Amino acid sequence: MNPADAAPVLRELSIQGEMLERHEKMMKHVVEEQTVLRQLVAELKGILLTPPGAAADAPSPGPSLSTREHPLPAPEKFNGDLDKSRGFLTQCSFIFREQPRSYFSDGAKVGLMVESMTGRALQWAQAVVSMQPAISYEDFLCKFRCVFDKGSSADSTAHRMFSLKQGWRSVADFSIDFWILAEETGWQENALRGAFINGLNENLKRELASRELPKSLSALVNVCIQLDEHRREFGRRPAGGSKTSAGPSLEWRREWEEQPLEEEQPMQIGRASFRSVARRRRPQGGECFTCGKRGHFSDKCPESGKDAAPAANHPPL
User: Where is this region: Disordered (predicted)?
Assistant: First the structure.
């Protein structure tokens, strides 16, 4: 097809795509409005069917009919990852609390959870719902926690707190995991202080041993973060103060560099007397012990036959 003929077609397709996108947004808005309208009709129907004498005994009404719920985004898809199960339940419970009229029934709550599942989690939900189509939300939630929420018990949380160690990571990164477990355990601040200090690496513990620690837990964590940042910053600086690369430094010196060079003695003639000194100075990097060059060994050194020549030119003393 000629590119000139294809341009109008592509432009028309782009216009159609934009129209479809606008129509999709309008349909979503209409569905939301219909949901709110059905809720209002159900509330009006309940009011009309209530006997007049029972109105005085009825509990105080909730939000007025004019109050509209703001739809919240759906929770993140849950595929059965055990580490994300508690976050998924938190998102769902927040939606149920903020939109009580949209999820007033057990079926609506279970439906939202099932719609937000994928992979193995969806397979499990399908098996549960197929066996118990009218399962209540409490029973469904209990089964969900039994399968996917393995770290919610107090003993499990305490074990993870005692096993939490800083290692070689920063205190700032370590403190995030610590605060999460601190909220889950519900321990007193004194116990949390001990658990936090116990999880620090040994170098930082030695630094804290000579300092007066703050009384509050949050202040203690901040002090440890600042101390760790200072240690890491100055650990990357040499004695002169100029910054070096953040990578590990190789602090080693060769043996021949550490030994002082022997001065030439006046009675030593030729290079034969320096052979032992030269060999001690040779680095272990593949150099010849005779000439110090690479590419050959000392038994095949071209310089080995020249040692006696200079000495023969000098008359004996």
Answer: 52-79, 258-317
Burial class (CB in 10 A: 0-12, 13-18, 19+), 64: exposed
The answer for residues whose C-beta is within 8 angstroms of residue 314's C-beta and 6 or more apart is 269, 270
Task: Compute φ and ψ for 92, nearest 5 degrees.
Answer: -65, -45
227 in a structural domain: yes
168 and 219: one domain? yes
Tens digits of residue pLDDT in 58-85: 455 444 444 566 777 888 899 988 888 8
Does 310 reside within a domain? no
**Residue 91 sits in the same domain as residue 128:** yes
Question: For residue 295, what are the contacts with CB-CB under 8 A and spacing of at least 6?
Answer: none
Domains held by the chain: number: 3
User: Is the Cβ–Cβ distance between 249 and 224 less than 8 Å?
Assistant: no
Scan for tokens 């059965």, then name that residue: 80
Identify the H or E element spanning 175: helix 171-185
Neighbours of 286 (CB within 10 A): 11
216: Cβ–Cβ under 8 A, 6 or more apart, which residues?
189
Per the structure, the complete domain to which residue 25 belongs is given by 9-47
Based on the domain organization, do 229 and 169 belong to the same domain? yes
